[in-house]
Amino acid sequence: MTLQLGEIAPDFEANTTQGRIHFHEWLGNSWAVLFSHPKDFTPVCTTELGYMAKIKPEFDKRGVKIIGLSVDPVDRHAKWAEDIKETQGFAPNFPMIGDPDLKISKLYGMLPASASGSSEGRTPADNQTVRNVFVIGPDKKIKLILIYPMTTGRNFDEVLRVIDSMQLTAKHRVATPANWKEGDEVIIAGSVSDEEAKKIYPDGWKSPRPYIRIVPQPRG
Question: Hey, which residues are catalytic here?
Fold first, then answer.
């Protein structure tokens, strides 16, 4: 199973470091980031979990919930959290899903459906494809999928940047250009006719080509 953008994020029940959850109920009407890890006590993931804990207030400001997943039981997550706190300065301050039966990893297409057994005895290399970032919208639909190799730490500042863009473009009929960040100019969406655009942007727009219409970032 390969998930596509715009599909409903698969629902599941699971044990986490903050108790058992029903995923869709936990999501509620919030945006969320689900990011996965191939194994506990792995070095790159240790840095990632510590950094996400550090910048969690930035996600909170945007109304975005964070949840992690690792292909190991929850009791190992708790022990790993101690290492993360000691080495990174921050312990995970969000729930971490235990996936020892590989059910969720397979449900989200991170491991093949044919994968058998449990997390016991599996190495990080066996689970190397469990390195995804899913951003899920309030409508429970998948808005972004990023997949990283084990040797490359994830850029969670980029995830925040993309969330800023997606939240803006969900509210206003605009798109964001390459390397856009909060406060930069945006592009009027192609679905907006020039007649409509004149009503929305009475001061006009910059147009280096007829199909490129640049305006200040909308507010509110």
Answer: 45, 139
Half-sphere exposure of 212 (CA within 13 A, CB side): 7
Which of 7, 14, 11, 48 lies closest to 27 in space, CA to CA? 11
Structure tokens at 80: 């790993």
Task: Show the CA angle centred on residue 76, arms to residues 73 and 78, nearest 5°.
Answer: 115
Judge contact between 132 and 99, C-beta under 8 A: no
Q: Which domains does the chain have, with CATH numbers?
A: 13-152 (3.40.30.10), 172-215 (3.30.1020.10)
**At how many degrees (to 10) do helices 43-54 and 74-88 cross?**
70
d(CA 128, CA 39): 9
Q: Give mean pLDDT, residues 32-55.
A: 95
Contacts of 53 (CB under 8 A, 6+ apart): 84, 88, 90, 91, 92, 93, 94
pLDDT tens track for 115-164: 767 777 777 888 888 999 999 999 999 999 999 999 999 999 999 999 99
Helix or strand (DSSP H, E) at 7 = none
What are the CA-CA distances from residue 68 to residues 16, 181, 209, 216 (Å)?
9, 25, 43, 36
Under 8 Å CB-to-CB from 178, ≥6 apart: which residues? none
Q: What is the pTM of this model?
A: 0.93
Instruction: Report the C-alpha gap between 33 and 163 in whole angstroms.
Output: 10
